[in-house]
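stage 2 :: seqdesign
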């Protein structure tokens, strides 16, 4: 099992950061490894969506059910994909009206050893850079 934990303090509100992470449809616009996304269902509390990864010769997709606690947290649970286990949580902690702490904790294990050896390093790199990618996106979107 691989565990990744990253965080950043940003000059944007928790609400703004939550909205960026929750905007799954826009991921291909700024995450170079994200080939496509698909939203299967969405209501106030949940989103079921898939993400297709295309990076370094790796092409895989996975589907999660995201449980949203408005502007505070997004919990990710695996629905299907190349994982034995995938669980994650984004947290958005308001520090001031225009500042917040964004945190990501994710743990995953691939469904077999070969996938772990081939896809594991790529997925680990994606997870390790995800918070920074959303910080950069926030600067592009909100610092206009």
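stage 2 :: out
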């Amino acid at each position: 099992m691989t565990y990744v934990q990253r965080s950043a303090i940003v000059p944007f509100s928790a609400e703004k950061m939550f909205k960026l992470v929750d905007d799954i449809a826009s991921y291909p616009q700024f995450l170079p490894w994200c080939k496509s996304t698909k939203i299967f269902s969405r209501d106030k509390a949940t989103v079921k969506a898939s993400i297709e990864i295309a990076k370094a010769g790796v092409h895989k997709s996975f589907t999660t059910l995201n449980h949203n606690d408005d502007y505070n947290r997004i919990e990710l649970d695996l629905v299907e994909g190349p994982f034995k286990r995938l669980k994650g949580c984004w947290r958005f902690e308001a520090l001031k009206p225009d500042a917040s702490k964004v945190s990501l904790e994710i743990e995953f294990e691939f469904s077999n050893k070969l996938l772990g050896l081939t896809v594991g390093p790529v997925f680990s790199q994606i997870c390790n850079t995800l918070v920074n990618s959303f910080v950069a996106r926030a600067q592009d979107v909100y610092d206009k």
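stage 3 :: structure notes
- The chain has a mean pLDDT of 95.
- DSSP finds four helices and seven strands in the chain.
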